[in-house]
């Protein structure tokens, strides 16, 4: 019996090089979301992720396995995320995706998951926004100025035509650095309220554990992508915005288990994004809408397969 070859290793630079542009990532992600929301006939097997708290250091390890029959792809992502890190040279989120041969279980590749996590999360928010943003959407607001703020800025300014981008961060200095580093306009705001006021699309991408977005600030009909607060006792959005918006989620099961914004507000889930993509639930874009994103393993499966296939075809 021959031993399997050593798995390929693709670091973050290789992943960047082989990452398709946003427009290429959106169709397979839409298919994956729709398949996930189709139950067993969609061919997606994705158990709720396991999250191991590392209490002593305010950290968490997430284990995110998934199989997609349509893509014939089997992966698991290991992701760590740490709050209040003193050493800012280490990113708060670090991830690795393991890609297996689904026919025999051989590990084919170990792929840096940090770039994948940044890009696929932003691409999913962009899908939600495509369906749920108001007919006129001129002003984008981003709360947060970290990794996800960058990936969201990149894809949102590529796919949509906002006239204004307003950004707020807990430390203004980081928001200023963000505004100087992006390729395009970004207006730094002194408060979250100032950034949110008048915005048609809002993205929350912070490590906040208590609300930073309040319903009284939000323009009627706006669309909110709530990306942070992925623990059952963490919040980014207050009860007002949660209860007075139409609530879309990536996964009902995950939202009811992991999202403090959903669990603690008692807000009712209207639909999964995949149901909107399939057309079995409407996109109520004239209403104020929230897309609560927790991140799904199947998104990593699709993205990792794209990177691996691109690497394979060029080597
Ligand atoms: N839904 C999903 O699929 C995913 C969600 N996330 C979540 O997105 C959020 C942003 O992630 P990254 O950009 O990678 O993190 P990051 O560490 O690069 O950036 C976090 C930003 O939040 C700010 N911040 C930290 N503590 C805060 C507080 N208490 N109040 C307000 N702002 C605060 C920081 O100044 C920083 O600008 C996190 O909550 C993360 O867990 C991350 C990956 C995937
Ligand atoms: O989907 C992911 O990856 C993550 N989601 C929530 C926070 C950690 C990473």
From TrEMBL:
Indicate the transmembrane segments per the record: none
GO BP = negative regulation of transcription by RNA polymerase II; sensory perception of sound; thyroid hormone metabolic process; thyroid hormone transport
What enzyme category does the UniProt record give?
oxidoreductase
Instruction: Tell me a GO cellular component.
Output: cytosol
Q: How does it assemble?
A: Homodimer. Binds the thyroid hormone triiodothyronine (T3); T3 binding inhibits enzymatic activity.
This protein is called Ketimine reductase mu-crystallin
Q: Which reaction does it catalyse?
A: (3R)-1,4-thiomorpholine-3-carboxylate + NAD(+) = 3,4-dehydrothiomorpholine-3-carboxylate + NADH + 2 H(+); L-proline + NAD(+) = 1-pyrroline-2-carboxylate + NADH + H(+); Delta(2)-thiazoline-2-carboxylate + NADPH + 2 H(+) = L-thiazolidine-2-carboxylate + NADP(+); (S)-cystathionine ketimine + NADPH + 2 H(+) = (3R,5S)-2,3,5,6,7-pentahydro-1,4-thiazepine-3,5-dicarboxylate + NADP(+)
Tell me the gene name: CRYM
The protein's organism comes out as: Sphenodon punctatus
Lineage from the top down? Eukaryota, Metazoa, Chordata, Craniata, Vertebrata
Task: List UniProt keywords, sorted A-Z.
Answer: Cytoplasm, NAD, NADP, Oxidoreductase
């Amino acid at each position: 019996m021959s031993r399997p070859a050593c798995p390929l290793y693709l670091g973050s630079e290789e992943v960047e090089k082989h990452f398709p542009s946003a427009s290429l990532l959106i169709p397979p992600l839409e298919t994956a979301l729709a398949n996930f929301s189709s139950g067993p006939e969609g061919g997606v097997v994705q158990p709720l992720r396991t999250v191991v708290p590392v209490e002593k250091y305010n950290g968490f390890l997430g284990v995110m396995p998934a199989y997609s029959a349509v893509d014939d792809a089997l992966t698991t992502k290991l992701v760590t995320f740490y709050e209040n890190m003193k050493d800012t040279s280490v990113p708060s989120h670090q991830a690795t995706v393991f890609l297996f041969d689904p026919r025999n279980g051989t590990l084919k590749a170990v792929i840096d998951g940090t770039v994948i996590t940044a890009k696929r999360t932003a691409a999913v928010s962009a899908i939600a926004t495509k369906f749920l943003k108001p007919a006129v959407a001129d002003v984008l607001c981003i709360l947060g100025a970290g990794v996800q703020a960058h990936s969201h800025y990149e894809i949102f300014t590529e796919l949509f035509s906002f006239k204004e981008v307003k950004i707020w961060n807990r430390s203004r200095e980081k928001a200023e650095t963000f505004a100087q580093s992006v390729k395009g306009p970004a207006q730094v705001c002194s408060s979250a309220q100032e950034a949110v006021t008048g915005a048609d699309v809002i993205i929350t991408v912070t490590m906040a554990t208590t609300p930073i977005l309040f319903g009284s600030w939000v323009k009627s009909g706006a669309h909110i992508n709530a990306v942070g607060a992925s623990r059952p006792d963490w919040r980014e959005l207050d009860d007002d915005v949660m209860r007075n918006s139409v609530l879309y989620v990536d996964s009902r099961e995950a939202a009811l288990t992991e999202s403090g914004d959903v669990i603690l507000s008692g807000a009712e889930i209207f639909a999964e994004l995949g149901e909107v993509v399939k057309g079995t639930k409407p996109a109520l874009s004239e209403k104020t809408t929230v897309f609560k994103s927790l991140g799904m393993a199947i998104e990593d499966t699709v993205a990792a397969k794209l990177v691996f296939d691109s690497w394979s075809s060029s080597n």
